[in-house]
Amino acid sequence: MKFALILPVILAATAGCVTNAEFDRDRAYSKCESISQTTSRDRCIADAIAQAERERAREDAKDQQSQDDAERRELGREIAGVKD
Asked: 29, 23 in Cβ contact below 8 A?
């Protein structure tokens, strides 16, 4: 019984061990694996990985901007003397 409760926790923890790069490579390969010509397939994989990296960079920049905006708002509240 205890094993049945612990197993999902272990699976969830190990699922988090896949890096972004590994995930991107696996997704790119599955997208392009049906291409029979090696050079075209390799180019497709490289393009898919580069696209994923660009998307991840845009998301990171957006998250950072949101954090910076929140910090500025908090600082403005502190300067104005507003308490939580």
From this structure: no
